[in-house]
Amino acid sequence: MASGKSLSIVQYFEGAESHKCGYCKNTVGSVSNGMWAHVLTVEDYQDLIDRGWRRSGMYVYKPIMHKTCCPQYTIRCRALNFQPSKSQKKKMKMLTRFLTKGEVSKEPGDDEAMESCFEIMGGQPSPELNKCKATEHDLTISGDDLDVEVPVQEIEKKKEEKESVDKGESSAYEPSDTTKLSTAGGATPTPHRTPKPGEGPDTNRPPCRKAKEIRRERKLQKTQHKAGVTVCPEAQSDAKSVLSEKSKANQPKSLEEFLSYPAGELKHRLEVRLVLASFDDPGFSATFKESADLFAKYQMIIHKDTPSECDKDQFQRFLCNSPLQEEYPPDGPDCGYGSFHQQYWLDGKLLAVGVIDILPYCVSSVYFYYDPDYSFLSLGVYSALREIAFTRELHEKAANLSYYYMGFFIYSCPKMRYKGQYKPSDLLCPETYAWIPIEQCRPKLEHSKYSRLNSDQNTVDENAVSDINNVHVLYKNRAMLYSMYTYRRLAFRDSDEDELVKEYAGLVGKTCAQKMLLYMR
User: Where are the beta strands (DSSP E) in 82-224?
Assistant: First the structure.
């Protein structure tokens, strides 16, 4: 599959499927569309999650929002503007006291009610493997009949970039100093530049000052003026310097400062390692059993799963297998793009694992599980804050990567509203696919569990497909336009195929429909 590895190949399952809802327990209430992703580029998956899709292993699904019992809105946090809340600061301080002094909180654990794997998929299992009968030979691209040429040069360029990375380093990714997280924490200062709208404050301008400080300075100047006192420039400079230092001391601590620990002897040592979710990565393969055992322990104790529901096969199927292709562009993060496990080690023992996808514009949280014996540490909150800080760290190398995607926000399920506490955050409008600040969405969701969210009735889906003939498909090892496919199969024309392609294209959008290859038997 030479060039095919650089093109996304998906197999769409026509029609909606109803399953038991993992949130309200309605036996047939969860309704969604789905497809099997044989191969996905990180760019295409970024476009898909920006249209409400989400993956679980190799299966990618999209809730039918106006039909499903518990509408699931894609939620993202603007990581560069994030400031921890009082409650979140309390959780970080509690963990710091445990690491530095060995103190265990006397308060009962009140960690966020996180989803189980079953709930994340809306209660639906991945489709049976016999529905995905495409073999590796079927997915081999031997040529194309596209009127618009497949950008082969671009594909070869990406392959050469990855090959050069593989030759220059070991075959497995070894985190660098900037991507390997440790207890020391701290982020490298961002170079001076004018950020794009929404990225954060302009570092070229003077830092903001508190209004109280400015009023105090003006009052002092007025008093001196009335008294006829002339203050020399040096004294003014000294006064401003003192005020500036005082102002800095009054500034709230950053997220990174809360996540760093004082130098010196610690009662416990916490280390965070990033490993590629692939058996080609020695760090991943060496810790697979330990990670799978921890997953099973978490699922059985926290979510009451049976042993067969969380065995090694299920663990690998849901949280290890990924269709995402690794990419190492020169302007991307040092770790590259793809699927990763962020492992938390406490005194040499695996404490927790965060499964994440690193994409061109975001870090997307897939799942998080931890050792139930340490529930008192509120690890669900801590991991989310750590992943937000990690997003900010990656942004320093990859300027476009500035969001933290938290999966789905389910307002109709009270226990799942906690994701809205990571501010500022936005919800994805299910009709226009525009991002709407969550504060503007809450009144609409109080009124109705399904809402368009976007108040501008004139706004439409700008990525809608108008002509299915331009959809790209894979048929008999050849990439072609759907129009060429229908021409070749004129004698066997099936009108149902038109409906399938139309439904698929409407759900994935024009951009993906004209980049990904829809597998046709």
Answer: 143-145
Quickly list H helices, 86-210: 86-101, 117-120, 152-168
| pLDDT (0 to 100) of residue 269 | 95
The answer to whether 57 and 120 are in contact (CB under 8 A) is no
The reported pLDDT for the residue numbered 236 is 57
| Average pLDDT estimate for 445-469 | 96
Q: What pLDDT is recorded for position 251?
A: 78
Residues 6 or more apart whose Cβ sits within 8 Å of residue 65: 52, 71, 72, 73, 430, 450
Instruction: Indicate yes or no: pTM above 0.90.
Output: no
Phi, psi of 321 (to 5 degrees): -70, 135
Per-residue b or e along 224-249, where b marks 16 or more CB atoms closer than 10 Å to that residue's CB: eeeeeeeeeeeeeeeeeeebeeebee
Strand 59-63 to strand 54-56: parallel, antiparallel, or no bridges (unpaired)?
Answer: antiparallel
Side by side, which strands form the sheet with 54-56? Answer: 54-56, 59-63, 30-39, 9-19, 517-519, 472-475, 478-481, 143-145
DSSP structural state of residue 126: P
CA-based max dimension of the chain:
100
CA-based R_g, the chain, Å: 26
pLDDT at 3 over 50: no
How many Å apart are CA 520 and CA 472, to the nearest integer? 10
Q: Is 477 in contact with 145 (CB distance < 8 Å)?
A: no
Helix and strand counts by DSSP (H, E) for the chain:
14, 16
Q: How far is CA 501 from CA 140, 236, 447, 493, in A?
A: 21, 72, 35, 13
Helix or strand holding residue 36 (H, E): strand 30-39
Q: Could you read off the pLDDT of 172-213 as tens digits, one per residue?
A: 334 333 344 444 343 333 344 444 555 455 555 566 666 766
3-state SS record for 224-289 = HHHCCCCCCHHHHHHHHHHHHHHHHHHCCCCHHHHHCCCCCCCCCCEEEEEEECCCCCHHHHHCHH
Distance CA 482, CA 519 (A): 11
Task: Check residue 467 and report its DSSP letter.
Answer: -
- Residue 32 near residue 61 (C-beta atoms within 8 A): yes
**CA dist., res. 119 & res. 332, Å (int):** 33
Q: What's the pLDDT tens digit per position in 81-118?
A: 999 999 999 999 999 999 999 999 876 555 555 566 55
Which tokens is 287 given? 């810790």
pLDDT above 80: residue 258: yes
> Residue 443 has which token pair?
């009144």
Give how far Cα 465 sits from Cα of 7, 303, 469, 503, 507, Å.
20, 41, 10, 10, 9
Residue 402 in contact with residue 78, Cβ under 8 Å?
Answer: yes
